[in-house]
Amino acid sequence: MDKSVRINRKKNAIRVSKGERIFYIVNYFILTLLGITALYPFLITLANSLSGSRAILAGEVVLFPVDFSLEAYYQITTAAKIFDTMANTVYLTIIGTLLNMLVTIMCAYPLSKKYFPGKNLCVTILTITMFFGGGLIPTFILMKSLHLMDTYLCLWLLGLFSIYNMIILRTFFSGLPPELEESAKIDGANDIVVLIRIALPLSKAVLATLTLFYAVGWWNSYMSPLLYISSPDKAVLMLKLKQLLDQSQLAQNHPEEIGVVRPVIAPESFKAASIIVSTVPILCVYPFLQKYFVKGVMIGSIKG
Amino acid sequence: MKVNVQQVNLSNGNTQRRRRLLRDMKSARYLYMLIIPVMIYIVIFKYGPMYGIIMAFKDYKIGDGIWGSAWVGVKHFRTLFNSYDFYRILRNSLLLNVYSVIFQFPVPILLALLLNEVKCNRFKKPVQSILYLPHFLSWVILAGIVIQMLSPSTGIVNAIIKFFGGEPIYFMSSKGWWLVVFIISGIWKESGWGTIIYLAAISGVDAQLYEAAQIDGAGKLRQIWHITMPAIKPTIVILLVMRMGSMMDVGFDQIYMLSNDYVRDVADVFSTYIYRMGIENIRYSYTTAIGLFQSIVNLILLAGTNWVAHRLGEQGIW
To answer: Locate the ABC transmembrane type-1 domain: which residues (chain B) (predicted)?
Structure first.
């Protein structure tokens, strides 16, 4: 039986091999090409960041650094003080993500319960905000009138939690076996104890996913800091990066106008180095992201 | 639970019902401790700005406050509908979305079909990692890379064009090329990530179907067309329908990072226009009116797509 199946399979493989082999070759070829195309922009940016200005201006950098130099990195850490900005961003990200998780849990857990008086009201209040909002300017005015301009608190309040992520977590919570909760309740535990002792430990994977989603969101946030943060010492990484990219553009066109940062190296490698420095932290958490995000997306797409 | 409440209600009247409600509320007191702060936050920071919408019908002055400013009726809407800018941003928002549905939407489907046929994990995993990566990077980074690669003087793309004897192309400042850059950079960022949901749908297909098709002599392409495609069709339909709900939205970050003064005619959309007029030019009332217009259109689109989704037998959004 076992043998005949194997023979059968072999026959099959031989019979269809020609068309299939062409298909597989073409498929691997296309995917390899796409992979290289998607990766190459990062590689050339890395190469540019490590190359000397002469080689860049002559267009000699194609894949590997030419006239290897760390000058660009020296410049962005000293003249541009990118690490100060990064410290700001780490602070913004850590506190922001903690608040996000706290509030997401606080909202998702009660809503995962089948019934409590007022649940429908809460759901309605939340749902409306998914489809209609005050808009950019009224929110801006509100923050202004609360004197929250130019504070991180304002950013944290704006992005306190995402309803989509809350739905992911709520869906997960409502899938937990109710027996565990019941037995804990019989032992005298209240809802908050059940949440902390039972529900949260059972949801580690989805909590990790959401934490990463939120953290990446904070790290990459640009629009809110652009609107609400004005003092340079509070600038976050993406604001600073955009500023550096624009400045070195200016340096290229009007070298005499530069007051803040004066790159003595090719603007290309200066820009490339600041791009690389901003990308590296994401690359460091990327393996974790990969491990969890597929799961998170799947849970989210079940209901959402 | 609800049926119970009703039965009790019929037999014993209102007092019983009220007592029961109080008891339920008391037993849920810890749940209230969790959710009430969230609701207070939502009311202040999500519904508060909705109150600010009345600015759209007033001439908002900072000193007078929202309520104290003078009513002007639909003046700002009249200004808006009479301005050339409005038709430009409306056209751009719709066109960019139409292009994106035509050119970006099918890419994750094709990619998922290709990836699904790769059996060797040592090849598949790295390719997936590379394709997913741009999703996690901000537009500041990606646009920075794109602009640098396309630079007419030092960019690698123009270096290749020059190598083959062509004239360098000013990608970022010519309107036609800018649209191409917009679409391709969008594909680069999101299509890898977009494959996940299709791959999941494909993974639910019974492997026996493929074997049966193989025995019947169907080649790979026919298997894809007759087995895989029907399996992911519901996913495609629902994602397409949901995509239609955001036909007026263009992400601020991508436009803001990629655009410049040369391409404003094709790149200016609602979000960038509101930012420029509202924050930079401090025309609060006027831009609130634009925002309100946009929200209402979005609401109509969402309700429409939701209705369509239900008609198609899908779950819809609510």
So the answer is: 90-305
